[in-house]
Amino acid sequence: MKWLTLEETCSRNIEEANALLQWKSTLQRIPKPMQSSWSLLPQKSTNSSTNQNTSVSPCTWFGVSCNSEGSVNQLNLSQSNVKGMLYDLSFQSIPNLKYIDLHINELFGTIPPQIGSLSKLVYLDLASNNFIGIIPPEICFLTSLEVLSLFQNKLNGSIPHDIGRLKSLIHLALYTNNLESPIPSSINNLSNLAYFYIYKNKLSGTIPPGIGNLINLVEINLSDNLLFGSIPSSFGNLTNLTWLSLFSNQITGPIPPEIGNLKLLKILNLSTNNLSGSIPPSLGDLKSLSHLYLHINQLSGSIPSSIDSLSNLAYLYLYKNKLSGTIPPKIGNFTNLVEIYLSENLLFGSIPSSFGNLSNLTFLLLSRNQLTGSIPPSLGDLESLSLLALYKNHLSGPIPKELGNLKNLIGMVLTTNKLSGSIPPSLGNLTNLEVLILHGNQLSGPIPQQLGRLELIVLAIGLNKLSGYLLEEICNGGKL
Questions:
Q1: Are 405 and 430 in contact (CB under 8 A)?
Q2: Is 90 exceeded by the pLDDT of residue 453?
Q3: Is the per-residue pLDDT at 382 higher than 80?
Q4: Are 125 and 107 in contact (CB under 8 A)?
Q5: Secondary structure element (H or E) that encloses residue 267, with its range
Q6: How far is Cα 314 from Cα 141, in angstroms, rounded to an integer?
Q7: What does the DSSP assignment read for 357-424?
Q8: What is the distance between the alpha carbons of residues 397 and 428, in angstroms, rounded to a whole number?
Q9: What's the predicted TM-score (pTM) here?
């Protein structure tokens, strides 16, 4: 190890300090702590010799840290309200920088290619600023980099072709920019990558199958791009994955059954694509899954019985597909369920009475299917429910009086079915109810006066066989 003389240390301190001060002089807005501490004036001290040595050292400046040799190795001005450009910072004059965190400021202009000279840099966070232009290819020279975070800027162009050189990279976050072109195949070389976020861009092309070889991946989010082609079956190799999100792309083909190998997966979001075929039974092996989002695709066939194994499921979104068959009754055993969206499919059969066990359920949407039979009275046990939507099915029989127990219900939409009998007076107990839509059924009898207690915003009860008059309390007492 080379030990620097005092003269060399002071010379280096002066160079580093001058580089930082030169950058400070170009900033349009400087936070007060930076304004007061970034100075070559002697700091207050009882030791004059200490004063002399520290007067040119930036090591005590706001947001600046140094290594054991007194050289600047960290610059952390995150969330400091700094406004200006980064282009005027001479990175060559601060060669020992290992850590740069400038996220959540108002930095603008382009990212200077000179940043590629920082061969010791391990952490670079320029997120949530206003940077424009391309990601400089020189960033790929930072082979010690473990964290690269450039999200929420206005960057365009492509992901640098040689990004695969950053083999130490663990965390790559480029989301919410305007990046275009395909994902470079060199990404397959990032064997240490654990967190990969490039969503909300304009990336096109297919998903590189080699991503499936990045076995250290824990979270991957490629959503909200223009990706097409199929989901690589190699994704089944990512056995450490807890979050896989590919929603809002143009992905086609089936869901690969190999996805069932991802035993640690908690969130699977493949929604808003053009996926076809059936839901693979192997998804039932995802015992850790809490969020399953497959909505707005072209999936067909029945909901596999293997889904019965997903006891940790909290969010089940399968709406806007072509799913047929019956609703598996064992879904009613998933007591962690918070939201069920099965609307706009071809499901038939009855609503499982076991759904009454779902004590945490807040949303139950089964509308626009071909469901028959009666509404189970057990749904009245869903005390957390805020929205019940069963419209446009073939449901018959009465509206269960037990639905009057749903004290947290805000919306009830039962329109366009074959419901008969009277409107149960118990619905007047739903003091939080704002939307009640019952039109297009075969309901009969008078409108219960108990509905006058409600402060409804929407009430639709036409196209039935109701008799009598609309209560004055309903017309004048609420918000209609």
A1: no
A2: no
A3: yes
A4: no
A5: strand 267-269
A6: 44
A7: G-TT--EEE--SSEE-SPPPGGGGG-TT--EEE--SS--EEPPPGGGGG-TT--EEE--SSEEEEPPP
A8: 20
A9: 0.91
List the structure tokens of 419: 């419901």
Position 469 scores a pLDDT of 75
pLDDT digits (tens, 9 = 90+) for 318-333: 999 999 999 999 999 9
- Run of H or E including 22: helix 6-26
Structure tokens at 346: 């071809």
Which residues have CB under 8 Å from 154's CB, separation 6+? 130, 131, 132, 177, 178
pLDDT tens, 268-304? 999 999 999 999 999 999 999 999 999 999 999 999 9
pLDDT at residue 10, as a whole number? 59
- Judge contact between 157 and 131, C-beta under 8 A: no
Phi, psi (deg, nearest 5) at residue 27 = -75, 145
Classify residue 289 as exposed, middle or buried by CB count within 10 Å of its CB (0-12, 13-18, 19+).
buried
Per-residue confidence (pLDDT) for residue 106, from 0 to 100:
97
Do the beta carbons of residue 193 and residue 163 sit within 8 Å? Answer: no
Mean pLDDT lowest among 40-54, 213-227, 404-418 = 40-54
Token readout for 275 is 């996926």
DSSP class per residue in 59-118: GGSTTEEE-TTS-EEEEE-TTS--EEESTTS-GGG-TT--EEE--SSEEEEEPPGGGGG-
Average per-residue pLDDT for the chain? 92
Q: Is 49 helix (H, G, I), strand (E, B) or coil?
A: helix
